[in-house]
């Protein structure tokens, strides 16, 4: 199958224009080939925006109890029942309360996943990402700079900082200018730093972490040893 | 979800059935969901839209390729509304806007209303074969633009 005809098949299946045989064919291909599955999911997500244009409607009263009873009915998706038949109706009745709770939890989880997915994926895409390396070339921290100069610093190894000393994060917004402090990592853990008054971070901007006296560098310029440094790159999104 | 189903099926009772069946399927197939292959939302909505399409076919809609004038007008409003509501910044909107109007309507109406090639052809008074090849060209352009 050519790439072009595969793409067409995927698109027609997503739009609902494909017949049952074509849908089944694509599903088989996707089950066997992760690349096809990935392409299908990606194309599907591309059209998702159209689903979001539908009106938000409120579910009627009693809807969830109908769903719950639907779970007790025969499977609708063609699962073949086992030949050994065991009467589970009593167990099922006993389970229905738990099932109700579980279903409620699923609904809440799905909602949470959607909200989280939305908030994580949409507005906060970093403008630049820098991997900070130490002198041995090992990655010690990941720095994500957002356009509003919120900086996420994720430490990739436990730094050995003497007591009375603190890690300080620096950047050079202007290649030829002095380093500017983005903030301290007093807990020695990953943190989100915010700072006002800097231009949005750009690719090739230098980021580094140094060890400074407690309270931060007295000169407002890096004075201590460098734990790691790296140049920012623009992520491909 | 109910909004998507209602838009496609038009009837409140059918739409509720579709959402209900979809949730039952989500519950049963939860083990098949693979987060590395696209969003949960996309997965759930695909299940929902498939249920809707099955219900639509059960209603024998594919035979009715000559809808009443009133339905046509309403379909057109729904399709245009779906397109207009896409965020101005979205790639899908930009790429759909690059298609000629009948192609765009055909693609959006198949996704949003579940129209088959036959229904699209019936609405346009065009031969089925040309509608198919013409939607295919549109999909090709759309994919090129989105990639």
Features:
heterodimer, A: 237 residues, alpha+beta, Immunoglobulin-like, 2 domains, four-stranded antiparallel sheet, 5 helices, B: 147 residues, mainly alpha, Rna Polymerase Sigma Factor, Chain: A, Arc Repressor Mutant, subunit A, 8 helices, 73% helix, globular, sigma factor antagonist activity (chain A), membrane (chain A), RskA_C (chain A), transmembrane (chain A)
- What oligomerization state is this entry in? heterodimer
Estimate the global geometry of chain B from the Cα principal axes: globular
Main β-sheet of chain A: number of strands, strand sense, barrel status? 4 strands, antiparallel
Average pLDDT over all residues of chain B? 85
* Uncertain ranges of chain A: 78-83
Fold-level CATH name of the largest domain in chain B = Arc Repressor Mutant, subunit A
Helix content of chain B: over 70%
The CATH homologous superfamily of the largest domain in chain B is termed Winged helix-like DNA-binding domain superfamily/Winged helix DNA-binding domain
Assigned CATH architecture of the largest domain in chain B: Orthogonal Bundle
What is the count of distinct domains of chain B?
2
Number of strands of chain A: 8
> Rg of chain B, please?
16 Å
CATH class of the largest domain in chain B: Mainly Alpha
| Low-pLDDT segments of chain B | none
Number of helices of chain B: 8
Question: Structural class from helices and strands of chain B?
Answer: mainly alpha
Structure description:
The complex is a heterodimer of chains A (237) and B (147). Chain A has 237 residues and is α+β, with helices and mostly antiparallel strands. Chain A has 2 domains: 3-121; 128-231, Sandwich (Immunoglobulin-like). Helices cover 37% and strands 22% of the residues of chain A. Chain A is built from 5 helices and 8 strands. Chain A has helices at residues 3-15, 20-32, 34-51, 63-72, 89-121, and strands at residues 128-133, 139-145, 150-155, 165-172, 180-185, 191-194, 206-213, 226-231. A 4-stranded antiparallel beta sheet of chain A has the order 1-2-3-6, with no helix packed on it. Chain A has a 4-stranded antiparallel beta sheet with strand order 5-4-7-8, with no helix packed on it. In chain A, α1 (3-15) crosses α3 (34-51), α2 crosses α3 and α4 packs across α5 (89-121). The longest helix of chain A is centred in the middle third of the chain and has 33 residues, at 89-121. The two termini of chain A are 29 Å apart. Chain B is mostly helical and 147 residues long. Chain B has 2 domains: 2-58, RNA polymerase sigma factor, region 2, helix turn helix motif (Rna Polymerase Sigma Factor, Chain: A); 69-146, Arc Repressor Mutant, subunit A (Orthogonal Bundle), CATH 1.10.10.10. Helices cover 73% and strands 0% of the residues of chain B. Chain B has helices at 2-9, 12-29, 40-58, 69-85, 91-97, 101-112, 117-124, 128-146. In chain B, α1 (2-9) packs across α2 (12-29), α4 packs across α6 (101-112) and α6 crosses α8 (128-146). The longest helix of chain B has 19 residues, at 40-58. Chain B starts with a helix and ends with a helix. The relative contact order of chain B is 0.11. The mean pLDDT of chain B is 85. The chains are: A alpha+beta (237), B mainly alpha (147). At the A-B interface, α1, α3, α4 and α5 of A face α1, α2, α3, α4 and α5 of B. Chain A: This is Anti-sigma K factor RskA C-terminal domain-containing protein. Chain A: It comes from Mesobaculum littorinae. Chain A: One of its GO terms (cellular component) is plasma membrane.
């Amino acid at each position: 199958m050519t790439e072009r005809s595969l793409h067409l098949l995927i698109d027609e299946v997503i739009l609902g224009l494909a017949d049952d045989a074509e849908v089944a064919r694509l599903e088989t291909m996707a089950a066997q080939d992760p690349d096809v599955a990935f392409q299908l999911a990606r194309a599907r997500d591309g059209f998702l925006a159209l689903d979001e244009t539908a009106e938000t409607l409120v579910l009627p009263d009693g809807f969830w109890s109908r769903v719950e009873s639907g779970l007790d009915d025969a499977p609708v998706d063609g699962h073949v029942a086992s030949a050994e038949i065991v009467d589970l109706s009593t167990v099922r009745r006993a389970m229905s309360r738990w099932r109700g709770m579980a279903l409620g939890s699923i609904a809440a989880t799905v909602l949470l996943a959607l909200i989280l997915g939305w908030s994580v994926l949409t507005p906060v895409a970093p403008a630049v990402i820098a991997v900070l390396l130490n002198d041995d070339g090992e990655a010690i921290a990941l720095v994500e700079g957002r356009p509003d100069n919120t900086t996420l610093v994720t430490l990739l190894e436990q730094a050995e900082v003497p007591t009375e000393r603190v890690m300080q994060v620096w950047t050079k917004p202007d290649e030829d200018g002095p380093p500017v402090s983005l903030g301290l990592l007093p807990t020695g853990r990953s943190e989100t730093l915010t700072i006002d008054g800097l231009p949005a971070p750009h690719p090739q901007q230098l980021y580094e972490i140094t060890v400074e006296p407690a309270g931060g560098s007295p000169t407002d310029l890096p004075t201590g040893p460098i734990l790691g440094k790296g140049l920012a790159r623009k992520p491909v999104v | 979800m109910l909004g998507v189903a209602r838009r496609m099926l038009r009837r409140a009772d059918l739409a509720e059935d579709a959402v209900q069946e979809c949730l039952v399927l989500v519950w049963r197939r939860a083990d098949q969901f693979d987060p590395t292959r696209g969003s949960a939302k996309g997965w759930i909505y695909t299940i929902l839209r498939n249920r809707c399409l099955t219900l639509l076919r059960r209603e024998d809609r594919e035979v009715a390729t000559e809808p009443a004038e009133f339905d046509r007008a309403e379909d057109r409003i729904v399709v245009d509304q779906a397109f207009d509501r896409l965020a101005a910044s979205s790639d899908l909107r930009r790429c759909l806007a690059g298609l000629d109007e009948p192609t765009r309507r055909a693609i959006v109406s198949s996704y949003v209303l579940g129209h088959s090639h036959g229904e699209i052809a019936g609405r346009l008074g065009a031969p089925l074969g040309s509608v198919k090849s013409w939607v295919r060209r549109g999909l090709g352009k759309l994919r090129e633009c989105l990639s």
